[in-house]
Structure to design on (306 residues):
């Protein structure tokens, strides 16, 4: 009993709980998808990579899908487009969300619950309904369409090649990025608000006493201290945007093909599970590897400061 008590201490249980969660709901499904990616289709199912011949196990791995993706220009353009749209959405969410989170953190404590409620209020409505609402707003006759066309902003969007022609807002890169920015903006605001609300305001007073202007104090004190919220919010926006399927399907067009739609087509239209799994594995690696390198760099930088 004493040995079990030493093994299952409170600290180890706290660490073990998220590790078990990640093992069951991330690593194990990823291993299954990785296994399917190196298998072959057999009828309507996937052929097992491990077989037995003469009582001996035989492992058959097929990497031709990975070679095909590396050589096919369509897949490369799709991955690049997904990363570009995700990056543009992340930057827009940061540009819009940071001032709003800053205002929320500096607002009176009596107002902050109402402001937080305003940020979380869209989650009370179905995600699909909110995206469909944007279709009505951006089609001809919708008030957003009339506002953009009436102000002449559509001509600027056409000059920037965000829409193919003035007046055509739906099924364009503009509508795609707009829809993703609207959907994922709360995921940027909430981490930023959590970080900014905990900042010691005496540091800004000290910077002002040392002669720093409010703008200099903001860049030298506030932004560095809120970097954890910026990174957390950016990851919460960027990662799901890369694999987004619903918004590109409803608001995007043929020229806004993203990797989520490719995975759907390979799974359900082409019935090619190994290729779809290969596309998914490469997408996950494109996200996880840079993130792991960034976390390692951050850890080494923190160790250097100590």
């Amino acid at each position: 009993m004493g040995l079990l008590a030493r093994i299952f201490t409170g600290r180890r249980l706290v660490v073990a709980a998220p590790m078990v969660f990640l093992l069951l709901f991330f690593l194990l499904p990823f291993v299954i998808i990785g296994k399917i990616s190196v298998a072959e289709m057999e009828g309507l199912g996937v052929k097992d990579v491990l077989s037995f011949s003469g009582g001996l196990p035989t492992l058959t791995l097929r990497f031709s899908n990975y070679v095909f993706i590396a050589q096919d220009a369509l897949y490369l353009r799709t991955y690049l487009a997904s990363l570009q749209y995700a990056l543009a959405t992340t930057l827009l969410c940061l540009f819009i969300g940071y001032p709003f989170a800053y205002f929320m953190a500096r607002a009176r404590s009596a107002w902050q619950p109402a402001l937080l409620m305003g940020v979380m209020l869209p989650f009370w409505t179905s995600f699909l309904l909110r995206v469909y609402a944007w279709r009505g707003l951006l089609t001809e006759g919708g008030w957003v369409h009339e506002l953009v066309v009436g102000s002449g902003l559509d001509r600027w969007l056409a000059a920037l090649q965000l829409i193919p022609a003035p007046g055509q807002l739906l099924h364009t890169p503009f509508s795609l990025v707009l829809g993703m920015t609207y959907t994922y903006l709360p995921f940027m605001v909430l981490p930023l608000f959590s970080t900014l609300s905990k900042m010691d305001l005496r540091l800004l007073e000290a910077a002002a006493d040392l002669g720093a202007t409010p703008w200099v104090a903001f860049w030298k004190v506030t932004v560095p201290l809120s970097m954890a919220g910026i990174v957390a919010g950016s990851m919460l926006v960027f990662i799901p945007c890369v694999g987004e399927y619903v918004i590109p399907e409803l608001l995007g067009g043929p020229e806004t093909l993203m990797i989520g739609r490719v995975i759907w087509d390979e799974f359900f239209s082409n019935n090619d599970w190994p290729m779809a799994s290969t596309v998914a594995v490469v997408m996950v690696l494109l996200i996880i590897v840079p993130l792991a390198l960034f976390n390692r760099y951050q850890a080494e930088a923190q160790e250097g400061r100590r």
